[in-house]
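This week, look over our next protein:
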Amino acid sequence: MNFPAELKYTKDHEWIRVEGDVAYVGITDYAQSELGEIVFVDITTEGETVGKEEVFGTIEAVKTVSDLFMPAGGEVLEVNPDLEEQPELVNEDAYGKGWIIKVALSDPAEVEDLMSAAEYEQMIAK
């Protein structure tokens, strides 16, 4: 399993990477491996402001559909356009090309409350 140290993690298996005034959000390597083959990503909140821990969309695998939860509140600026044609990018490159949304954070301090890579790794090891 891969847990990049520069990211922050949620108990719901999302990651967030802050770059200046925006942040990228996706699901962790652990989450994509548990879900299996990703076949569809449904984000209906583009252009909306979504609060921390609120649902911003769903991700569909062959066997299940899971809600996606916002790691920190903000406006959903963009949905990864590549996922429409290639949802499997979430499986292949969860922390890179498989990012799901780009967000303008309402309160960047909310990110500080999330888990570090070491804390997340410890949580899923239990």
